[in-house]
Each structure stands twice: as structure tokens, then as C-alpha cells.
Give the backbone structure.
Amino acid sequence: MAMGFDSPQSGDGSDEVNELGNGDADRWRSCGAVFSEESRGGGGSRIVSAVLSPAVQLLLRSQVSQVKELSVEISGSDRQILGGTVPKVAIAAKGAVYQGLHLTDISLVGTGIRINLGQVIKGKPLRLLEPIPVVGVARLNETDLNTSLSAPLLANALSDFLLPLLAVDVGDIQQGLNLQNPQVKIEAGKLILKAGILLNNGQKIAFLLRTGLGLASCHELLFEQPEVEISQGLSSGNLDSFKLDLGSEVELEELILNPGELICRGGIRVLP
């Protein structure tokens, strides 16, 4: 399923973010008790329990290569759902793997969802008819983040991010970085990235980036006082703090780095 994102509008479910959690690790751990394989239909709707919940479960499982625990809670009356609108869907998952990205815990709430109910009842796959605002919280522990670094989606993004930091000093790098065994360590408010870089001439150098990480705005990451070290005497020193624009379609509210884990809270809009 192709997915795209637009910025959530104010009032599009921000209350649900606070309901899901305030970004602290202890609350995330306490949420584990609510995760289960069971789908629960809200509002006493027979359509939810008989048709919609299985269809949503099937759609979600088709999008991930692995998931340890998955819970779907759908709120809405038969009248609303027969009209093609689902007022609210809450999804919680543990151990989900999406396009090689390992998500330790994720909890999402979508509201005002328009679906092709008539086709679902006839056995067709569930489809979105309109964009929907989604708010939620995601947590990645250090182990899952490091496992995700080998996924093409994250590996390519990491290469594109690091290349401008090295291009002036490492003349043997012409196109993408050939990173060897990248490893991230998460500290309170900081990230430390270590990796080997294989040059075109076959030489391997060691690279280290140590940086503070926070939010400059709802769609910009702020790398604070980054320090770069490269072996073989090629480069070593501090860089100016800089921002990374994630695009106007992203609206982050909170980014927390605790020792060994990263927690992100915010909203997106999912396109059909």
C-alpha cells in the first residue's frame, strides 16, 4: 500500500496523543498490558466485530513482515459505519517490522475514516477513500534501531545524511557511502554513531558522530553541537549545529532520547 503524508490540521485528534502517553518511557512500558491479538469492536457495532475488525487486521498484517502483538480497537455505531465513516480506529503493536524498520512499540489513532465498506462486505480488500489524520507515539529501543540500520530505507537515508559531512575531507567518496557495521548508541538527549567507511580505493576508515538531537520545529530535527571524528588523520573536529527538514508533511510534537531508547510523538496524514 502506497502511503503519503500531509500535516494534520489543528483539532484532528491531538487529544488522543495525550491520551496515548506523554512521551515518558515508564508509561510506554506500562502500556504493554493492553496489547493483545484480540480485536475489540467499540460502540456495540455488529459490523465492526463481523466485518471491519478482521478486514483491518488483515490490511495491517499485509503491510508488515513481522508483528509480535497487534491490537485494533474500532469505535463507531452501525449507522455511522454503514454510512461509510469510521469515527475512530486505535492501533497498538509491539515488535512490528515495516520495510525493514523494527518498531519496538507503536500506538496510533486515526479519526474520521472513510472506507469502501460496500466492497469490504463483498469480500474485497479494505481501502481508504480519503486522507485521514493520524496521531500517535512510537518507541524504538537501541537494539531495534541498530537492527533497522541495515534496512535499505534507513541505510540510504543515513548515507545521504552523512555524505555532506565528509565530502570535503574524504576525496575517495564519489557517490553513496559504503558504511560498514554502523552502530548507534542512544544517551540522554544525544546520539553516538560509529561506523566503518569503505573508500573506492579499498581503504577502510573509522567514523564517529556524536551529537545532541532535538526538535527545531514541528518538522525539523536539530543536531546540536555535533562532533565528527575520522581515522587516518582525515578529519576531526566540531561542526556548527544544523537542522534537518523532514518536510512540511511531518508534524512532530515531542522527541525524547533516554538512555537506550528513542520516543517520538506527533501526527501525520495518511493518503489513500
Summary: Residues 1-43 have pLDDT under 50 and may be disordered. The longest strand covers residues 85-98. Helices lie at 14-20, 25-30, 46-63, 78-82, 117-121, 142-148, 152-166.
